[in-house]
Amino acid sequence: MRILVTGGAGFIGSHLARRLVREDHEVTILDDFSSGRRDVIVHPSVSFVEGDVRDAEVVERIVGDMDFVFHLAAVVGVRRTLRQPWDTITTSTVGTVNVLRAVLRKGCGCVVASSSSMYGKNVHVPLAEEDDVVLGNTHLGAWTYSYAKAAEEVLCRAAWQDFDQPVKVVRLFNVVGPGQGEHLGMVLPRFVGQALRGEPLVVYGDGGQTRTFMDVEDAIEGILHVWRQGDWGAAYNVGGTEEVRIVDLAHRVVAQLASSSPVEMLPFQLAYGRDYEETMRRKPDLRRLRALGYRPRYTLDQMIRRLADDQKEGGL
User: In terms of domains, do 75 and 224 share one?
Assistant: First the structure.
């Protein structure tokens, strides 16, 4: 198949592109390279188009040659979303409208990548796809990304209901793995880098907030399960199984890597500014995805070691 991956130069998108190439598909990547690199994947079956999904003409032209679209383009990283609220919300709304319109005209299908962030403050555990979205004040920058992903999902649902648009949504929970740098501020790559350098592992807040991590290879498996077997118009949680407190995660990284690094605490407001609010719990209910045959393979300890090996190979 001829497949478009928007945001394919980024961390998850590049892993997806590699997998699609291994399955003998021809892949086109549309990316503005704001957080990804053109050299992240080099293969004769992969071509790059530098552009923005908010450019309707570019999206329409590329989708016209495709058999399927994976839409992963987004502004990612807490600091980036706080600094660039306009780009964050418009990439997920204007960009998704452009993709959905182009896909509808072409008559092909689409998988759209959402995020566990769209659940917002909902601390129900485990979070199921039908659970409520509980978001904070619209004037707090901390919630811009959550609103952006929630709006993206509403657009997908509307396209499915109003136009029979063949679209599916995957809600990704804290994806980590090789190729994920520290520069975007994701907590586990940051902890691993700090531990390898012997620096303090800085935990924001009191460390009692929880997350459930998933290796990028498991994430790709989940996305492909939804692509091949998931229902059109539906959303699927794609995540791991072990919920861990962030302060415990820091100590676990230190232990796994036999590091001498101390663990230090820093208030959220000093880390991210006064606009920041934290989601205290996040663990997915995977029953809908498991019904498609999905089973995550990597444990949290394996994820830590894979990140460490990758950072060492990168010259850390």
Answer: yes
